[in-house]
Batch of 2 targets.
Target 1
Amino acid sequence: MQAFLRRFGHFLQTGRPVALVLAMGLLLPLLATAQAPAPGPATDAPVRFGILPLGGAFESRSDWDPLLAELSRAIQRPVSVLSVNSYEALEQAIQRGEVDMAFLSGKMALDTVSQKRMKVVAQVVRHDGLPGYRGLLLARKAPPFNTLKDLIEQPERWRLARGERQSVSGFIVPQLQFFLPNHIVMETRFLSEFVGTHQATALAVANNEADVATNNSADFERFKARFPAEAQRLQVLWESELIPHAQIVVAREYPAELRQRVQAFLVAYGRGKGPRGDAERLVLKSLHDLAGFVAADNSSLLPAARLAYQLAMQNAKSAQWVNDAARQARLQRLENGYAEQLAVLKDVSP
């Protein structure tokens, strides 16, 4: 472009009319291209909403449809739904730019916000009023695989059903707070391993296809309501510390005004009086027994960042290294990455 402009200046100095006309014919389209702003999301394009696969993909989609229909009217934009069968599929869709808004658990929300793809606008709340839920280990009540002592002493005899690696209660928290402190690496110590949703892992244990399952208190309550006979066969072997609730995130490229409208809609949803408020509360109940949403920003992910950092540090410290210098280099990279992540999460600008 700069070389072309220099030649154009030379044409002006020599006063050649034909050259000037030709140069102008070539220059104007180039200038128009150079000055055109980068395209943002079209104002009438559907907002693509991604949903965590907490039950089945169809079940998750049908549960969210009524709320998203009202959201569409509130923001005066069509809203389409992406419901997938795995955390990995949703993560890949986000990385491909196929998701504009999403309901995500701590680790997935943390990753997409840290990569500066999304911003947090709201966090879910439940009827118990607690700021989070607890990770669980489920086992059958009937012997032989039914005590925590046996699990700790002989994990290689047990069949494990767990969540994906991105799942906070299905993988990160039980690994960090229970298995690693008891010198058990989830991926290698068990007789066999099944990976699925919280509903699928609970069913696997209830139906004697696995012996212990990672789960969480919120989804286990939902499981009891939907599968009462199977739930009767199960017991809770272990509970984690409190885990912060999931977030709603919206793409950073969207105008702050649109993110604020989404936030205002979510915060007000289910809080009204009369038949409409009652109908909204029924929708929230079907969404894993939610009480509603509260306004939130990126800083709500600080607890999730701390959990992920602690797990990474513990894994690094217990791993085998060629020498201490390599180990220390890895620990320093984790420290630096965590510091950068905190800087992003503490930026709560609109």
Target 2
Amino acid sequence: MSLSLLLSVLLSLSLSLSLSLSLSLSSSLSFSNPASRLGVFAKLYDNIKGDRNKCVNLIQMASQRTAEMREKFKILDNEIEILRTNAINKEKLLQKSRLKHFHSHTVRDSLRNDISKVTQVLHEMRQKREEQKLNLGRLTQMINYHEQNLLQMRKSHDNAVQSRNDR
């Protein structure tokens, strides 16, 4: 039962009590007999006692409901604290994850840069190798040409020596 409902019930009981008290007193004045007056006051006492018991019960129910609400509030407060702690822990994990992610991106970018440099060096080395192959081919041709010239000269020389010796 809510507290506002309890208060409205108490207010209505109080009004009915004051109304019954005023009615009883006005009717008791008309009785001149003390026994009849005593009966009226006994009824009035019983009515007041019943209303008082109702009020006591309502107060006990309100107190019990208040205690239950306080207990529920404590439980909810503890649950909020647990959820807050969980949220803080998850936020820390998220921050740590973001830091790892950022670090991974930095490492990735560094590795890409290194790969690009190595690729450039490899390309330059391939070009240099091709140039050296071409140079080697030219030099080989020159050596072959000069060797043939040398052979021709040797043959000429040998022929000249032979013809000199033959004379």
